[in-house]
Amino acid sequence: MKQTPVQAILCAFLSLSICFSPKSIPLDQGIPSLSQSVGGSAVSEASEHDSDRDIVFYRKANDNMEIALTFDDGPHPYYTPIILKILEEYGIKATFFMIGENVTYYPAAAEAVLKAGHEIGNHTNHHKGMKSLTDHEIRKEISDCEDVIYSLADYRPTLIRPPEGAMNDQVRRVVGALNYRIILWDVDTHDWAHTPPAEITRHVLKEIDAGDIILMHDFIGHNSPTPEALRMLIPALLERGYKFVTVGELLDET
Ligand SMILES: [Zn+2]
User: Fold this and answer.
1) Would you call 63 a catalytic residue per the annotation?
2) Residue 11 has pLDDT above 50, yes or no
């Protein structure tokens, strides 16, 4: 993903700021290029094989007002339980794309996510940009994360979100061969940039449409706006008739 100078400065600042969090894990940043959208042409052009075309999802339209909340980069020992409590209050299920390394550090938080009935996706073991890795390294990042989750929870994820949404033909090919579906997003809350909760809420309400996948994070280091944003966002979306489902449910809806 090409960054503007402003984004580059912001990323540098974020990298510095998260050094003071319990673990220094890079965050997902920004919306992936729209040219890669499944609905657009780039994926079809980039993928010669039919089998590649159906594995990348930004959203999946439906008539039931269903949308999916997703949380990346956790589990986090403080924020993940807070988010779980909010979701429980509203009876909502979501999808958590976990970093294998963080599952190892904070197994109780990961177990709490599963115990509450949420879906877990693979977010690689170390959150490295996969476009710069070899086939072997991509496979290892994915399988190591999967193994950590399996050893903890007897659960094998079938969905993956590449770190920062970064991917290319090579990543699609390797991930596809591992029978994962690649999940990106249609609405970026920009919580990773410590966007104020009211602004997050305004942005999502403006952008949201049935079938959208919403990007949030349960691991943002300190002063995460995500819990407060959820407390504003969830009731507003429910009031508008939206129903929250996991990504797996959204994709498998017939
Ligand atoms: Zn991430």
Assistant:
1) no
2) no
